[in-house]
Amino acid sequence: MADWVQNLMDSMGYVGILLLMILENIFPPIPSELIMPSAGFAASRGDLNLPLVILVGTAGSVLGTLPLYYLGRAFGEEKLVAWADKYGKWLTLSGKDIRKADDWFDRHGTKAVLFGRLVPGIRSLLSLPAGMSEMPMAKFLIYSSIGSAVWASILAGAGYLLGENYDRVEQYVGPASKVILAVVVVAAVVWFVRRKKAQGQG
C-alpha cells in the first residue's frame, strides 16, 4: 500500500493527498499514518511544500468526516431510540441508554471531537455520534479542523524529519491504533456483560 500511496502522490501531488485523506476517513484501511508521513517525505525532497501538505491534508481529513456526520444526522437520536426500544434487548440496550449517551455527547462532544481526531482507530468514527447528537455543523467543523490540523502536522512533520524512513511512523502508530480499537471493543463487551448481570439480578 505504501508504494500505491507514494505513486498516487507523485502523479497527483496535492490533489492526491486531498483524495487519500478523504478516503482515509471513509475507508480506515487507508491509514493517515501512511499518507501524511509519505507527503512529508515528498516535501523533504523538495517535491511539495510542507505547510501546503499540512493544509491540504487537514482539508481532506475534515471533508472525509462529513459523510459519517450526515449519516448520523440522518439516522438521528429519535430513530436510534425507537430502534433500541424495539430491537435492543438482545444487546441489553434501551432507548434510555441512547439518550444518556447523547446527553454525554452534548456535554463533552466538543472535547471528544477535538481530541478524538488525534486518536488512531476511532478518529473517523466520532463523526457518527456528532451527527446523531446534532452537534451544530460550524462547531463540528471547527473542532474537527483543529484536531485534524494537529494530527496532520505531527504526521507530516515526522515524515519530513525521517526522510526515506517515513514508513516507520506507520509501523509505530499502526499497532497502536489496533490496540486502541481492541480496548474500545473490550470496554463495550464489559459494559454489556455488566448490564446483563445487573438486569438478571434486578
TrEMBL record:
PANTHER family xref list: ALKALINE PHOSPHATASE LIKE PROTEIN, UNDECAPRENYL PHOSPHATE TRANSPORTER A
Membrane topology: Multi-pass membrane protein
Name recorded for this polypeptide: Alkaline phosphatase
Transmembrane segments: 12-30, 50-71, 140-163, 175-193
Subcellular location(s) of the protein: Cell membrane
Domain of life: Bacteria
Signal sequence coordinates: none
Species assigned in the record: Deinococcus arcticus
Pfam families given in the database record: VTT_dom
